[in-house]
TrEMBL record:
<feature type="region of interest" description="Disordered">
    <location>
        <begin position="283"/>
        <end position="302"/>
    </location>
</feature>
<dbReference type="InterPro" id="IPR011042">
    <property type="entry name" value="6-blade_b-propeller_TolB-like"/>
</dbReference>
<protein>
    <submittedName>
        <fullName>Tol biopolymer transport system component</fullName>
    </submittedName>
</protein>
<dbReference type="Pfam" id="PF26550">
    <property type="entry name" value="Tricorn_2nd"/>
</dbReference>
Length: 302
């Protein structure tokens, strides 16, 4: 069964890390980068910009859709999801300048939501290769694929803890999407949220003590944070009439980047870790998004 992406620009995220990229014209006084997806040039392509929202550089140029980019911790590679092989969605890597593209997965099932381990040796991702969306890990070169979850539900958006020992993820195994955490080998799966709404798109703060996530418990999507160990200390970070979604922290933990449609279409924003001092990073007529695309996993035509 072929799957096509429906409304890829919904439920978005931005992936941040430190990178040099001086040859791309970036001001090295602002070394933190946002790697993101935009349709500003006609179809979904991957771009890089700094956290001021300036100097966007296009990294991919393909008639297919390239999205869900994540930058490795050592800032040398980007993993992303694409249908450029003409089949279903697979995972690819490229260097931080958009060169040396390598296809990591190749099957007639969906592989999406990639996430680098902190040491860059492994990738967590979501696949329906065994019938439903589950969390898997593999070596960074695409070998040694291992399944971590095994339920009849949907699992999505895995995120590594900063020390590489745990993975947070979203799952609807208990009836609606909640935030879960497990050891990096799939053991000790534990539920952190318990709400009738949808909680997903977890992102670890660099301290490892906090997880930010998106939830529609107020009727539309807002950003919250909680204690990564037991789900306590729930805090609401954003409260806007629009949807705020798919958070990511900068490597220094001083900035929270997210996607929002508060100006009509989805754009990328930055805020302080407590959700204050919101800044607009992109402003185009087309959608700008990033690492997490809920529509890929939930809104597929069979």
């Amino acid at each position: 069964m072929k799957r096509t992406l429906v409304s890829w620009g919904l439920a978005l995220g931005a992936c941040l890390a430190l990178t040099g990229c001086g040859s791309s014209g970036f001001d090295l006084r602002y070394p933190q980068r946002v790697v993101f997806t935009s349709t500003r040039d006609g179809n979904a392509e991957i771009y890089l910009m700094d956290t001021r929202g300036v100097n966007p550089t296009r990294l991919t140029s393909n008639t297919a859709r390239d999205f869900q980019p994540k930058l490795s911790q050592d800032r040398t590679k980007i993993v992303f999801t694409s249908d450029r092989d003409g089949g279903d969605y697979d995972l690819f890597t490229m260097d931080a300048r958009g060169k040396s593209v390598v296809q990591l997965t190749s099957n007639n099932k969906l592989d999406a939501d990639p996430a680098w381990s902190p040491d860059g040796t492994q990738l967590a991702f979501v696949s329906d290769r065994d019938g439903n969306d589950e969390v898997y890990v593999m070596n960074a070169d695409g070998t040694n694929v291992r399944r971590l979850t095994n339920t009849s539900a949907q699992e999505e958006t895995p995120a590594w803890s900063p020390d590489g020992t745990k993975l947070a993820f979203g799952s609807n195994r208990d009836g609606n999407f909640e935030i879960y955490v497990m050891n990096a080998d799939g053991t000790n799966q534990k539920r952190l949220t318990n709400n009738t709404a949808s909680d997903d798109s977890p992102a670890w703060a660099p301290s490892g003590s906090t997880i930010a996530f998106a939830t529609n418990r107020n009727g539309k999507y807002d950003l919250y944070s909680l204690n990564a160990n037991d789900g306590s200390d729930l805090r609401r970070l954003t409260s806007d009439a629009a949807d705020d979604d798919s958070p990511s922290y900068t490597a220094d933990g001083q900035t929270l980047v997210f996607a929002s449609n508060r100006t009509g279409n989805f754009e990328i924003y930055a805020a302080d870790p407590d959700g204050l001092n919101v800044r607009h990073l992109t402003d185009t007529p087309e959608a700008d998004s990033g690492a997490h695309t809920r529509a890929v996993l939930r809104n597929r035509r069979h």
